[in-house]
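ARCHIVE RECORD
Type: protein–small molecule complex
Small molecule: dinuclear copper ion
Source of inputs: curated submission
Record status: active
Notes field left blank by submitter.
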Amino acid sequence: MIRLLFGVSLLVLLTGCSGNQSALNTHGHSADALKDLIILVTAVCTAVFLMVVGFLLWALARKREVPRSDNDAERRMTLSVRIAIAFTALTVAGLTIASFYTTSDLNSGNDATVVVRVKAQQWWWQFNYRGVNQEPAFQTANELHIPVNQDVRLELESLDVIHSLWIPSLAGKLDMIPGRKNIITMRASRPGIYRGQCAEFCGLQHSHMAFVVVAEEEPAYQQWFAVQAAPAQEPTVAEAVVGKAVFMNKPCAACHTIRGTPATGTSGPDLTHVASRHTIGAGLLETTRGSLAAWIADPQTLKPGNNMPLVPLTSDELRQISAYMEELK
Ligand code: CUA
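STRUCTURE (tokenized, with ligand):
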């Protein structure tokens, strides 16, 4: 019976949050440890719940005995309450100790080979990578790449309000607080694409503050790193060549950086390799020429409240800029 109920509750949890953003579908040692803790706490709490219901049913069903004396009844009640208190204290202490040992071991990867400074903003993620001598190398937006089987240290900062970084399949979550640096470490145990999400309400577009984590083998990671560190490709198609000029002459260049071009704005995401990313708008849309054009045409309808203003463009200019963006692989 307990097994059945436990199985059913676990199934509800699993189907409720399965896939690449699930704390129960884990592929990293931090997330594995947390999953074990979830299962332990769920099992203990289910057992306690069943015991309480069992005692309640037993108390309701049993025939009322006439107590031998008031003293006798009093003594039995005192004993029952003492046993219940001792049992509760033991259970709570046991779970507290298990929780302490699990979480104290989580961020122990101090000799991480990959260090990424993460700066959360309303409502997107900036990932700053460093080179071999820890000098700033490049930044991406809403997409984090990590090598598998290596400790990765994320240094978390926030620009505006409190956000919370959570990649359920790889690690626990940690707050990102303006003016403070928090550290989270993780290690992916197998290649895959995982989803991260802001886990703390941070305003209008909190639910549209997702990102992609690509865990890959070392050679693939190094290849990705080299591509990202390089400046932007020059456009080849005629439409894109014009698109580049339009981009540079419009307000776009004041907010976005495209390395290797005069665009050096810093308030919006770095677009040097925007088309290499899986999504735009922090997980909002899959990256295609159509979605890029739609976003540029009307960012406030797609994601109300974000900081990108509407830049008036003719239909030709919109096509040209989106052709240029599509070539920024
Ligand atoms: Cu950032 Cu919720």
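CURATOR ANNOTATION: The first helix runs from residue 2 to 16.
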